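Example 3.
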Amino acid sequence: MDREHTIVGTRMTRTDSLAKVTGTASFTADVKLPRMLCAKVLRSPHPHAKIHHIDTSRALQLPGVKAIVTAADAHGVKWGVFKYTQDHPMIAIDRVRYIGEDVAGVAAVDEETALEALDLIQVEYEPLPAVFNPQDAMKEGAPLIHEEYANNINVHVHIEVGEVDKAFEQAHLVREDTFQAAGEAYSTLEPYAVVASYANGYLDLWMPNAGPHVRAKALSNLLKMPLNKVRVRRINVGGHFGARSEVSPGDLVTSLLAIKAKRPVKLVLTREENAACTRQIHDIKATIKTGVKKDGAIMAKEFRVVYDGGAYSSTGPIATSIPYYVYEEAYRFPNVRYNGYRVITNKGIRGMYGAHGRAFLGGNEMQLDMIARELGMDPMEIRLKNGLKVGEETATKSVIISGGLEEPIRRAAEQARWSEKRAKLKDGEGIGMGCVAIMCGFPMGFRSGSACYVKINDDGQATIVTGICDTGMGNESMAVQIASEVLGIPVEDINLVNADTETTNLDPGAYSQAASFVGGNAVKRACEEARRQILSFAAAKLNHPAEDLDLKDRTIISKTDPSKTMPMRWIVREAFFQGKPIAATGAYMPKIDFDREWVKKPYGQMAGTYSFGCSVAEVTVDKETGQIRIPHFVAAHDCGNPINPMAVEGQIEGSIHQAGVAVLTEETRWTEGQLLNPDLLEYKVPLACDMPEIETVIVRSNDPEGPFGAKEGGLTTRMNAYSAVVCAAHNALGVSLNEFPLTPDRVMKALDAAKGRK
Amino acid sequence: MERYKVKLQVNGETEELDVKPSETLLETLRDQLELTGAKEGCGLGACGSCTVLLDGIPTRSCIVLTAELDGSEVSTIEGLADGSQLDPLQESFMEKGAVQCGFCSPGMILTAKGLLDRNPEPSKKEIIRSVSSNLCRCTGYKKIIEAVETVTSTETTKA
Amino acid sequence: MITSKFEFKSPKDVKEAVHLYGEFQGEAVYLSGGTDLVPRIKLGLVKPKTVIDLKRVASLTRVEDQGDWIKIGSLARIFDLKRNDLIRDYFPVFEASLEATSCESLQMRGTIGGNLLQNSRCLFYNQSELWRGTKGFCLKMGGEACNAVPGAKRCFANYCSDNAPALCTLSAEIELSGPDEDRRLNLEGIYTNEAAKPFNLRPGEILTAIFIPKKQSTGGYEKLRVRDAIDYPLMSVAFSLVDGTGKLAVGAVGPKPYVVEIKTPLRGAIGEAVEAVLKQVRLVGNTVLEPEYRKRMIPVLAERLFNKIMEGAK
């Protein structure tokens, strides 16, 4: 294809919007099936305890109760993302490890009966000593939460590149700082829910998920059912951001209930259960040591990071690494030592959040600013100095094939009037910059790639079948937009079948930032093959070279002689006649090193490509109250080429909310393993009135691999908005900020500490 | 348990309902009337996903007892379009990219509708104040505000 | 869902409402906007046997100019009151506190009576029954000890009405109608100073009206919170100047507003008033943001507000 794009690159109204604005879009809790039962889960009130006995007999006698399940109904299979992290039975067998852990499930004719039944289930617990923070958990003599993790250290990732100690000795300037951050909460607006329906050996499932194939596989293992009999169906998802990535206890409980009751079962979690009993986000404590040359070039970095992982592994090794990786993808580190420890504690299970480790990034970037200041350098200057360029490698040997950090920095700085504003800051004002690079896809074994199937129907309309999953960001629309461009037919002629494990092919899911780069590529290739088939038939029919034919507006048309045309549907029908219907598969596997492993071999090509981004935040600080405001925010994101610029802007804007303003407001608060704010009032999700004025800059680096040059659509901002605000606050306050989030009480503490008070 | 009779106008249609006193309007809409556009995001009135128009006022239906509403009018997202003719707000939300995951959208659109019905020419500040009643986790609110501004006859600001 | 089972009653006047309450002595609750009560019922913090809806009592929504007093019906909505000309002209502190209340949608639902009679709040208390059961019931729930402050024998829940401090600075009075004779008292008289049970209401009493002396005032309200809407105050200050005398009220830092008169509101007088408040309050870690910080902000916000009003009054 060598002409100007007609629809890719336009601000197309998303194909999923109509259903959503008319209230017809179904989310899991909206699904209703005949004879469906209501499920509730009995949860552990103890952070750590042995289970000696579960007596469900009284509950079973309650009229209206149709099934009760415990671990005895499961198969003793433990789940983990990797074979070496399989520690999670999903429904507690003989031990509970966090308050809220699933112990039993009830399916009844209505909610009231199910709740009543929960009260009738008797569990004999033997409480065990519990531990609630990693520092305590790692001490000698601390309660051991899993037999297999000595000192409760779940994962240790060690990365060593070059000669770190020598480099520090030679460095002109060395700084070491420690930062810590409370975990956030995803606060997806849709609380978790599952609908399971079992009949004739087939289990159908709906739940907010970020990749049905991964989900189905996990459940197939847990249920000891053949994979083809576990069908995860497409459903709208009310927000994800990492919360919906892997199999959840509710999936297993609801499936077991449906199988036992022989009726469909729906489980809807309350907001409290959603916060306390589904995935949470790691608290982090990081010690960062950086050595630089006189000109600001980074010589060495040493990291010791402790992640509060909660009670089970979840994505363990991935979560323990990603915060480091997104940083090494942005900057040149000739010598690095990274030690990441994911520690088990008696709290809910922690996973990744919009990549992961934004507070870690914030600490690093603020330290970089402090170093820059000591060297008399502008923070922008030091980032340009160290930013990776196309053709370079990250410290762990991934090659950058497009973009690089320079252009996003320059474009963001220009849009934000960085130099001008820095020069005339008043007291209490600050401006800060945050940078990051994000991997598009990463090693997930054979599931790293995507495949798409397209069939052209007899009226010349198309059905695209792809595993691409949309959790709200617009991936479905993107797939249709790509298909429309390649096939030359309007969007309304395209039907999309996606994210259904029975019908759609493997795809990484809305995970690891792969949807456009990997999934979109597969769609493009499938459509290109279909296009090739169509044009081949048309060439024969028109007696005209195929290379000179184009597809536009449902028509085959000669590029040089516009009088030579034929409706596409004639060719489609001709193809049917010849016994060769237009149907094509396309697949894309990113060019990554499949030997690379998170723990055993953390070196090699990690991802097919990287996006780059730079955010600039302006803040004003009230030094008497510690309150910070963000009047203005600029974010530049290199997405390669925006398939839908409006959708990319939407991602950037949402990221500024979730990672920028969140720096000031969001933290989970705990009391002995119990969440104090498992709700949406005391957990402070920013409101419209809390938002800055936003300007977005889309940088186009035209990735050589990405479909139409596209990379991922906005995740750099979901990480670097945090650092931009942290750096701006640091700039305004002039003191080190080592504890996040930057709620006003912490800001005052930091100001006091700097003054030497208390 | 005693049940309570309530006569409600829902999207222009009269519904004669038989409700438990403890039944919320959200439950009545979703379970009895099968209008699932209004969502339960938190159940405690903190997020606004359950917002409907109650006698024209944007109201969190999860903290209203249906028993309170005899003689009232309720408008849900399903009743906003006039047949196949979408409300201008629905059009603008789509065109401006103000809908991502869509979970907050019914409530958000109705909050905006309530605003425009009582104040057809709100300032940007008034729009922001109004939609600050509703949580959105996806959009960052910018395109939502733009979508509402588009429907007023004067666009008060750009970017 | 709400698991407690109750009857629903819809009286047409105050007398009928009070009579209904008497029928279900001790187990009935009055419902106005429901923005405080319904979440409490959902959390299992209150399990009424009867809910008596006051919203069909027409007399309770009116605002009347009575010459010496402005009378405000307790069921008037926050949103309507903040746009009322009498309130805007005479009582800027009240306009400010109404505007600061929650968010627009909840202002349109919530009533001034409900706002004043909202129950006190604590992170360890405003939780589901399941949550609270894990910790053991606290003092405010009728248990043995405080969960926010281990070992403490008194309750530290905070009373978070935005409008109460404002009205206290205006020397507002309230009218209560119950099974016995109606009573009218200073708003401050309604508080027990006990967070576990914050109000001095007799069984069956309905707050029917608020009376504000119709005197021109200047004043303002400042609210400490994390987000700019929805959030309850973490601390708030209200100040009014009426006939040359000032009144400061500090809210959300205990079971009632702390009110101090400033007879001669010269510059510096605020310090003394704040000291008087600081001596009385004891803040603990039962909200988001640290208690030491919230306490530290009392003089900061009070001084700023005082100076702003005094500056404007010149």
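Strands of chain B lie at 4-10, 13-19, 51-54, 57-60, 73-75. The mean pLDDT of chain B is 95.
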